[in-house]
Input
Amino acid sequence: MKRESLLAALGTLALVACAWAVPWLKFILTIALAKGIAVLGILLLLRAGQVSFGHSMFLALGAYTVAFLAPMESEAVLLLPAAALVAAGFGLVIGLFLVRYRDIFFGMLNLAFAMVLYSLLEKLYSLTKGTDGIRVAALSFAGTEPERGTQEWIVFGIALGLAILFGLLVRFYLASPMGRALAGIKTRETRLEFMGVPARRVLLFAYVLSALMGGVGGALIAMTTRHVTPQIAYWTSSGELVFIAILGGAGSALGPFLGSVAFELVRVYAAAAVAEAWQMILGAVLLLVILFAPGGVWGLLSRRWRA
Amino acid sequence: MADWFTDNSLLLGLALLDGLANAALIFMVAVGLNLVFGVLRIVNVAHGSLFAIGAYAAASIGMFFAARGLPPWMGYVALVLAAVAIGAVLGPLIERLLLRRIYGHEDVLQLLVTFALFMILEDVQKLVWGVQPVSQDAPLKFLGTVDIPFGEDVIPFTAYQLFVIPGVAVVTLLGLAWFLRRTLTGRVIVAVTTDKEAATAMGIDAARITLLTFSFGAGLAALGGALASPTLALVPGIGAQTIVLSFAVVATAGLGQIEGAALTALLIGLGRSIAVYFAPEFEVVVPYLIMVAVLLVRPQGLFGVIETRRV
Output
């Protein structure tokens, strides 16, 4: 408990120090934090034993909301909640349908919705400029329009702040009765219902929350890369989120961030070392983690303490 | 409405013919995926990669044969060789070295292991065959085209896509149904699918059946790819496309259904190719719309059986 907070504080310091010492890392770490927030949502669903193979749709919804609205409203402080709302709204509508399904059907239906969104983004050229993607217009932050270097720091700061906020929220939520009921869906849903707990509503709440965090993650990615393409909604991007969740470990709200930083760093170094085979290296890392460290990075760390 | 049909009969005809070939290919992949899921209880994300590798391997072997000056009908031997090689080599390799280690783990982890495998195979495929389009259409050209009268029009359509691809799919469907219901090995596979514990208690070597089923499924996916290879320019990403499509078929049909998978593949294949001709923007969406519509009404899939919930 105490160690978790300590690790979180140390991690935060380390991130800031790295971003300050190695300027190009700032970009990668911002992306990692943004994805980490989205992966927190995957973590919630994993608690219920469900895996969404289409969560990239919420990343895409958040990212495209920012890209569409930025020319009209450049204020990032307004764009972020707007992206979160759009994603949560879609999450609610889709979720109402999805929470009736479990396991493979749940995963594949998520995939289906994500693929529908992907192809709409790709094909509706007049609206989305297809695979070329949309450039995100210049943003302002609380009324100011800072120069590029400062802006990168601001987005990094926002991402870090939101990561901590959502991390705490998820921790609080998982410890609450609602969060405990999620684990009940995984072990024996029928027993949950015998106790009078509406399992579908419990899952729906988690789903909407996870969609919201996906939207925030996507919005932050759009603000960092300043360019959004349909690729963000493709199923491999969803797979990546689940990958990060397992890499980091599903045991703690810190897991997603440990996982996403590790993931982005491995990806950058693997792509630099062997441009054609970075996917292969990531795949091999994933296999090694699953076979030899099923608790992920978090599991490795917490085991060390107990020993 | 009647006017619309006469005006568009040519396009509609083409869409139906294309859809048939398309459905046959999806069926080959989906039925393997289904079979493997039945026995291993693992949704194999890398199944699409086996389709892609089968396609590339068939093209390579075909080109090798052609370069050696072998007669053109050897192109068909190349297709079968590629499928058998992948089923017999890659299948056991993956099952023995990788999947065997994770049976009984959480579903999510099993899914991710195959996702990792997918990532690895995608790159292996790029390293071996590069990223430039590969195409080997000799088997397509060898059989020439057939003129099909359609209303007042005549559609020239390749005999390969009209007869060979659907033919192989039908033979696979019938052969598989016979194999699973009439032979000992087939019945043992069904037994393991239905209740692995009970089957093992009866003295069935589940490990052997698992290996066999996975290799067989891999071979079917590779055969699908090999059959498709003369009709496509092979590029990276066809594996990823194929797998999501066959997921849609399997989920729509319901798990563990073979004839159901065939009908669903036909439904989705036709739906998709009609979209290609009449609303190309929505080509990719159609399979999922069909899937969502079906699952809304029948959550267990068109032909799926509701499993009793174990308390």
Chain B touches chain A through 47 residues (CB under 8 Å). Chain B has one domain: 10-234.
